[in-house]
Amino acid sequence: xxxxxxxxxxxxxxxxxxxxxxxxxxxxxxxxxxxxxxxxxxxxxxxxxxxxxxxxxxxxxxxxxxxxxxxxxxxxxxxxxxxxxxxxxxxxxxxxxxxxxxxxxxxxxxxxxxxxxxxxxxxxxxxxxxxxxxxxxxxxxxxxxxxxxxxxxxxxxxxxxxxxxxxxxxxxxxxxxxxxxxxxxxxxxxxxxxxxxxxxxxxxxxxxxxxxxxxxxxxxxxxxxxxxxxxxxxxxxxxxxxxxxxxxxxxxxxxxxxxxxxxxxxxxxxxxxxxxxxxxxxxxxxxxxxxxxxxxxxxxxxxxxxxxxxxxxxxxxxxxxxxxxxxxxxxxxxxxxxxxxxxxxxxxxxxxxxxxxxxxxxxxxxxxxxxxxxxxxxxxxxxxxxxxxxxxxxxxxxxxxxxxxxxxxxxxxxxxxxxxxxxxxxxxxxxxxxxxxxxxxxxxxxxxxxxxxxxxxxxxxxxxxxxxxxxxxxxxxxxxxxxxxxxxxxxxxxxxxxxxxxxxxxxxxxxxxxxxxxxxxxxxxxxxxxxxxxxxxxxxxxxxxxxxxxxxxxxxxxxxxxxxxxxxxxxxxxxxxxxxxxxxxxxxxxxxxxxxxxxxxxxxxxxxxxxxxxxxxxxxxxxxxxxxxxxxxxxxxxxxxxxxxxxxxxxxxxxxxxxxxxxxxxxxxxxxxxxxxxxxxxxxxxxxxxxxxxxxxxxxxxxxxxxxxxxxxxxxxxxxxxxxxxxxxxxxxxxxxxxxxxxxxxxxxxxxxxxxxxxxxxxxxxxxxxxxxxxxxxxxxxxxxxxxxxxxxxxxxxxxxxxxx
Amino acid sequence: xxxxxxxxxxxxxxxxxxxxxxxxxxxxxxxxxxxxxxxxxxxxxxxxxxxxxxxxxxxxxxxxxxxxxxxxxxxxxxxxxxxxxxxxxxxxxxxxxxxxxxxxxxxxxxxxxxxxxxxxxxxxxxxxxxxxxxxxxxxxxxxxxxxxxxxxxxxxxxxxxxxxxxxxxxxxxxxxxxxxxxxxxxxxxxxxxxxxxxxxxxxxxxxxxxxxxxxxxxxxxxxxxxxxxxxxxxxxxxxxxxxxxxxxxxxxxxxxxxxxxxxxxxxxxxxxxxxxxxxxxxxxxxxxxxxxxxxxxxxxxxxxxxxxxxxxxxxxxxxxxxxxxxxxxxxxxxxxxxxxxxxxxxxx
Lengths: 805, 348
Fold this sequence. Notes:
The complex is a heterodimer. The longest helix of chain A is centred in the C-terminal third of the chain and has 19 residues, at about 780-800. In chain A, helix 11 (about 430-440) packs across helix 12 (about 465-480) and helix 19 (about 730-740) packs across helix 20. Chain A is built from 20 helices and 41 strands. By secondary structure, chain A is of the alpha+beta class. In chain A, strands 3, 4, 5, 6, 7, 10 and 11 form a 7-stranded antiparallel sheet that branches. Chain A is elongated, with a radius of gyration of 42 Å. By secondary structure, chain B is an alpha+beta fold. Chain B has 2 domains: about 5-95; about 110-340, BirA Bifunctional Protein, domain 2, CATH 3.30.930. Helix content of chain B is about 40%, strand content about 20%. Chain B is built from 12 helices and 9 strands. Chain B has helices spanning about 5-20, 25-35, 40-45, 55-95, 110-125, 140, 175-185, 225-240, 295-300, 315-325, 330-335, 340, and strands spanning about 130, 135-140, 165-170, 190-200, 210-220, 250-255, 260-265, 285-295, 310-315. In chain B, the strands form 2 sheets. A 7-stranded mixed sheet of chain B has the order 1-4-5-9-8-7-6, sandwiched between helices.
């Protein structure tokens, strides 16, 4: 809402700079988007009187004008506008003047004739084209006859105004009007505003109801008030300049005196009004109802609209003529030929209008106000004011009375609140006097009894109906700056992370210490990527109405998003990337309303984790490096049951020979491995290793009970075994067998060499382990160890076909 | 030649030899040659048998003196040469300490996580519990229970991704507030919760909009919670995130779930309130929304607004990070360019 400070001064004494006023509004009422000064940056633009206007000798459209600009000698100015003529007062941009768009005007020649400046149209002064009246859009602007040549032009066309652009929150619809804003400022500055009065002269003979009948079929909540006035013998013509100025400074385009009057009253009272050409109505019969399936209406903008059963309609003899609160119909539009005006003043339900505006994409000054609600008590006054104004501007007469379809009996709301409650909520020590003064400034009649205020809230502040609303009024007018700053007191509480939160935090630190940087990727992705790398198959959670095909479903894995991140980096020549993410995946559960959200942690590594440097070669990541990261991370969780890595070739997106499912006991908790080369190509990433772990499951699993083991005082002994064994025998199998046969004193089995190069026969590999033996209670004897070790060797030979080397 | 003279000669010769020994081996040789059992000093001492009893102690004393002097010279020379050897070795081992150290792979927390963690720690210190609500929420909890009935104009402020008619991606982490309110046992003390997390809005991604971003919502409900408490709490937040010299001011605003509602501005950290391009010459930057919990919200959760009241606030870590570090494009937070992520090297 654009608030003209010139207009405001009709109501209030405001000797305050606009910036200060704006700041005060922002601190006390609503946000301010800025202060607009239409003449800002413009210089040496003055009134000129065209003394002579001759055709340019070398042009079929230019004119050479002699213009009085208040100097001794007139200026010669060449002008191309079709409407330039001798005797007119015009806008002159003098030589070396500045006009709109930071343009400087200099003396120049046009087809050989010197021109000292330029005659201007409104848009050349920086007017938004949408605000320029259509009748002056194609030529220069003609100023009133009493304009004084040589004077700056700004005051004549309202460009000396300072306009405060308010950003109105949904609760403060009352400030979408000059009156509402004036009341607000009156409260802020403790003034009594001079509000406009309506001087309506009704015809003694013509009676509105004789020519116009109004019937409201829609129910009372949808249309609490609907009434009309009839204005006869109106001459439709452009509005006087003062009105045009107010209209365009309010951000609207002047149309004609009738429409401008309704818009003026709209701005003044916040009451939308609609003027119909009475002669286009059928038999003067108006009815208001909901639309029926299949009905159509061509609106003012020329659009043929299919109406919805939720649309409120104004009908003439049951034919749609207006989409209530949003836009009128083309057939009943006020034109130059209109002489009789049927003027509507109505209250429509906010939700109805909101839906209509949304469904038909018709957002107008009227719909914006109806959506936020309007002052139900002001409809009649606004209707009278507009009728009086139309009659005055169009030399018409207002028929006696109104045609009333429905008239709501509007009662003010009474809200009671105590002083102690106010101070209790605000943390203040306000006195009765302070609070009473605030209600007085708001012009809310108040009865004070002991510490109770019984406040009568006028209908213009329909946002207030609870004690909490009154507390807000007191708080903002008292000033938030004046509130003390304290911290909550009362019973102390303990703030600490729960187990899940603690594990998540620790997990992040462990991943970072392992060299992985935290990524936060998008949860929404394509259906295909949402399915990819899922640990468990699931239906997707799809958006009902996605914005783009890139973001349609919630992810089932984090790896998928991490690969997108890697691709982004690879495309920017960052080939060494190690990322992890901690976040949710979403398993659809058809029997439930919502999907189940599971915390996962995942990593993706490509290239080398260590930068190539002097003395350090790049170390391209491989399966065992990422497995090492996963293993040491899982170790830190101190799980009670053993972690197992089981080769798996079932993940479609993973390398079938380089992927392990991870089990804790028998529970599948994740996987680790290399991304399938085909998948990698599809994601546009290079060789990449990933893991995905179900963190929710890991947190829920039983933890090992940690108990100190005494450190043996007796020395340990080691034995090394190297063996040649079939390729398909896994390390896990060998270690399991060694542990099984190792005897009571076997403490540790450590793999220290793997070789399957040229010195090893095809289908075989060479493995070497160190076995560590130790007795808690005695020094081991060599023979004991040898005996135990030999058992292991025998088992390896017999059961796994190992050839001990 | 008297024995004394012989000793003097040996001393002078010996000292010269020691001095000229330039390696440890030569010093050791001098020691063996002079002081060994078959050396000349020993020989002189043996010759003392022939001296008179008067002379013997004098010569003996002198011999000891010479021997000690030589021994001391040898020890000193030995030490000098040993030091030289070490010095030489150390000189040979000297490194260019400005060469870079060997890289240890180190990751870092996301900048958004850093901000969330910092605030979580601040609020846990004040007795708040951290609550992680669901990202997929019912319309009922995300909107209706927060006093945003269907068709409320304020819903326009939060264009929404719906899954079904009644289920959506939460547009605010305050979606979790009704659940916190209805689950809390007030006989055990006040409700103090902080809900950080991901939220979603139906927005087209550009430099200042993201369909996914983060929010941190705080909620305190007890028998005597005031707006002054809210102001004090927000001031603490600003000072924790930006610094002690920062101030907070409140302005009226509108949120359906609070009444009164305010926006909080923080002193512009770029110009310290003097006015600059970042704060549009106002000296203040809008950073969060807050207010006193609306009585309807309490009522809908079965809490008597006559007895209990509280405050709620919400802020955007993304916006905080953009302001604090001068990040000009919100998409940077979700594209995970390592050249971006690695700039925020503080550990969480």
